[in-house]
Structures are given as structure tokens and as C-alpha cells.
Design a protein that fits this description.
The complex is a heterodimer of chains A (197) and B (111). With 197 residues, chain A is mainly alpha-helical. In chain A, 69% of the residues lie in helices and 0% in strands. In chain A, helix 4 crosses helix 8. The longest helix of chain A has 30 residues. With 111 residues, chain B is mainly alpha-helical. Chain B is elongated, with a radius of gyration of 30 Å. Classes of the chains: A mainly alpha (197), B mainly alpha (111). Chains A and B meet through helix 2, helix 3, helix 6, helix 7 and helix 9 of A and helix 1 and helix 2 of B.
Chain lengths: 197, 111
């Protein structure tokens, strides 16, 4: 794998993520793991909220499940990826399993809240609202690639690891997604100008 | 490719940054996770397989010694020791192979 673990954020107590993981692994230290949860809960929950289309309760349930799975499997963590990237991988798999369980489609408009409600904080501007609409038109693979590479700020390599797909597929999905989104945004802009005229 | 003037790229980055910078208050989330965390098993993977296997072998030996099956097993061991191929010996080898196979698959399945 081309990326290397470099989680070295320092806790107020002076422990890095790696220290805490080591303590949780070797000493079965629940407090160390609790500190990891505290540090990563916000980003993971935000990412899952985006992934689930703004279903806050569902996103938090999956986040909780993710941390519990991480705790159960902490001894298998090999420091080959960042802890946060490992969490994203577990979370993505948990989300996929949830989707399969409920036979839901990621972008099923009937079951998803309206983008305006979902993106209540982000969609202040028309452009952001248009961006959310443009993302709705993507396939699951394209949307997942955009979420991992932009919203979770992962490299293509890391996104491939999280999504469990080849690197080439991630790159293709990103290109296709951006192509579709550009076309849609241009169409919305033209619509807007047409309305104004 | 220069992405500095790509409006879509800029829009995506700005939206993503807003998402990442918007801190979600813990509000008891960590407490709920910690409360739901199970205790880690104190046994190693090998021990988790080895202990039941050892009990099974001991129990099987006791049963064999107390029933007629014991003489069949003893005969089979004797046949194997003297390198004589009999139905008993083949049966015993099959049982050993199954036990080893099941243990190995449990070990790899755990990993």
C-alpha cells in the first residue's frame, strides 16, 4: 500500500493516537479507546451523515457500531493505514451492510430527506444547493468516491482501501462523477439564467 | 491539470471543508459507545480453539474407554502403529483429518 500511518495528533494528556491504540491493544485499556472515540467521533459522524444523506439517527447508530467493531478488532489493526482511514473503512462496510439489510438504495429520493433539510448548514448558497442536487444524480460508486476523496479528504489510494475497490476504479469514478456534476451544474446555471431573463 | 480555476473543484473543496470544520458536539456519544463496548476475551485465538478441542478429545477418550467403541479405537491405533491398512485404521485417520480440518478452518475464519 502506498500510504503509511501517520496519525500523530497529540491529546491534551500527551498521547498520540498510536499510543492510545497500543494501550487499547495490549492493555485492554477502555479509557484509551474512549479517548480515541472522543477525538474521532465528530469527523466520523459528519462523514456518515453525508453518506446516509443526512439521516442523523441512522448515521449515529452506524458510527456507534463502527467504534464497537473497531474496539472488538483493535488487535487486528496493523498501523498500515491511519486510524481514521481504518474507521472510515469499517463505517463504509457497516453502511453497505445496513443498505443491504434494508434493501434501500443510497439515492432513493422517496426515502431520503430533501437536500435542503439534509444540507441545512452547508446549503446556504444556491451553488451549494446545486452541488447537493448534482451529487444526487451520481451512481453509488461515483458518489462514494467523491465522498471519500473530497469530504473525508482521503488520497485515491486510501479511498480504494476504504471502498475495497481497485485504485483505477476510484480514479475512473471520480472523473465520471465530476463530468456528470459539471454538466448538471451548467444546466442548473442555464435554468437560472433562463428564469431570470 | 491545474484545478485552481475549476469552479466544481473549488465548490467541492469548500463544501467538504465546511463539513469537516463543523464540529459535532459529543453530547454523550462517547459514553454510549463505551457502555456498549464488550469486554475483550482474555483467551488467545489458539486457546479459543484449543480448549474446546482438548475437552472434546478427553470426553471422546472417556466415552471410548467406557463403551465398546474403545476396542475399535484401540484396534485402529494398533493397526496404524503396525502400518496395517484396515477399515478401522482408515476410519480413525478420517476422524483425525476432520478434527484437524475443522480446527484449521476455525482458526483461519477467525483471522
Amino acid at each position: 500500500m502506498a500510504f503509511v500511518a501517520s496519525d500523530s495528533r497529540t491529546a491534551p494528556a500527551g498521547f498520540t493516537d498510536s499510543d492510545l491504540i497500543a494501550r487499547a491493544m495490549r492493555g485492554d485499556d477502555r479509557n484509551a479507546f474512549a479517548e480515541l472515540v472522543r477525538r474521532h467521533q465528530s469527523t466520523l459522524r459528519a462523514s456518515l451523515r453525508k453518506m446516509t444523506g443526512g439521516q442523523i439517527e441512522l448515521a449515529d447508530d452506524i458510527a456507534q457500531e463502527t467504534f464497537i467493531l473497531a474496539w472488538k478488532n483493535i488487535r487486528h489493526f496493523r498501523f498500515e493505514a491511519k486510524f481514521s482511514t481504518w474507521l472510515y473503512r469499517i463505517a463504509f462496510n457497516a453502511w453497505q451492510s445496513e443498505v443491504r439489510k434494508k434493501h434501500e438504495l443510497l439515492m432513493d429520493e422517496d426515502k431520503m430527506p430533501e437536500p435542503e433539510a439534509v444540507e441545512s448548514e452547508a446549503a446556504h448558497t444556491g451553488m451549494k444547493r446545486d452541488l447537493a442536487r448534482a451529487m444526487e444524480g451520481l451512481s453509488d460508486g461515483e458518489r462514494n468516491a467523491i465522498l471519500q476523496c473530497y469530504y473525508n479528504d482521503l488520497s485515491h489510494d486510501e479511498a480504494a482501501y476504504v471502498l475495497g475497490i481497485p485504485l483505477g476504479t476510484v480514479k475512473t469514478n471520480i472523473l465520471k462523477a465530476k463530468e456528470k456534476m459539471r454538466a448538471r451544474l451548467a444546466a442548473y446555471e442555464a435554468e437560472g439564467k433562463g428564469m431570470a431573463a | 491539470m491545474n484545478t485552481a480555476h475549476d469552479p466544481l473543484e473549488n465548490l467541492l473543496k469548500a463544501d467538504a471543508l465546511a463539513m469537516r470544520e463543523g464540529y459535532i458536539d459529543d453530547a454523550g456519544f462517547t459514553k454510549r459507545v463505551v457502555a456498549a463496548m464488550p469486554a475483550h476475551s482474555r483467551l488467545s485465538r489458539a486457546a479459543r480453539i484449543g480448549v474446546p478441542l482438548a475437552f472434546t478429545l478427553v470426553a471422546s477418550t472417556v466415552v471410548m474407554c467406557c463403551t465398546a467403541a474403545g476396542s475399535l479405537a484401540v484396534d485402529a491405533f494398533m493397526d496404524l502403529a503396525t502400518e496395517t491398512v484396515t477399515a478401522n485404521a482408515v476410519g480413525l485417520l478420517l476422524v483425525i483429518a476432520v478434527v484437524i480440518g475443522v480446527s484449521a478452518s476455525n482458526l483461519t475464519g477467525d483471522a
